[in-house]
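User: I'm writing a short methods note and want a consistent example. For Methylmalonyl Co-A mutase-associated GTPase MeaB, I'll paste the sequence; you return only the structure tokens, no commentary, since I'll be parsing the reply automatically.
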Amino acid sequence: MKASPRQLVDGLLAGDRAALARAITLAESSLPRHQELAEEVLERCLPHAGGATRLGITGVPGVGKSTFVDALGVHLVRDREETVAVLAVDPSSPVHGGSILGDKTRMPRLASDPRAYIRPSPSGGSLGGVARATRQAIVLCEAAGYSNILVETVGVGQSEVAVADMTDCFLLLMLPGAGDELQGVKRGIMELVDLVIINKADGGNVDRAARARRDYESALHLFPPAPHGWAPVVGVCSAQEGRGVSEAWENVLRHRAHMQAGGWLLRRRAAQARRWLFEVIEGRLREAFLRSAGVRERLSGVEALVEAGSLSPLRAARQLLETWGQRGL
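Assistant:
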């Protein structure tokens, strides 16, 4: 017999990892019935959520995000004796839509610890590489008792700033030797970062990492100060060797204390909740639009005209929206 939403929530609140996994699976499902169940589960979990430290982690390809998350998670569960949930978003293929979902294999130490929960999820092509249900998963993990939530995204790009809109602190991982890499980092990301960590500061990279740190500190000083008054901190670490990881977390806690003291953490989360509302509205409107019988009848023909260049996308969109307004509502 399938568990009811109440049974699912009761299990989740009791720390049942299987119940948590089932709840997140419901949130990720595109089936209307599953979405309804996920909505009810979320409503029941909201009063029990909100107390965790939410950290977003992004970085250039090859920077060692999974190794860093593994090392940071181990520090939290073993050194600090806390719990941690990792929401690792895998890139979905633009061709066949699949994803590798191999993050657990890249976090071997953390995956074996009972105080840690790792949930790899396909991005599904969503903005910023953040899975469609990641916001819900954060709430569910908090309700399940995890005191730290780490959201690992697929990489750096203009849309990757989406992770900053669902976490308390935004951490950017970079490689030693700023140079060309500094030029390649999008301005939008640099304006949103709270922490920059130069990873792989080991072996022959120690001096290069120190130079990169100075370069990033100089670059960040060129940006106007944030309204909340926090100045981004630049650090170095070797996730492979475990050096500098505890210092990175201390900076996360310093940032959290700063944001709480000025009331900015509550404001940030309130703004995130408001944007979540409109994300859901936009998504539901798009689904309703595409389900409309009138739109479905005209869509393939209009698409063909747009592809042939005989109809502009602007006019095509207006015609389809007018059809939806007349017959789809």
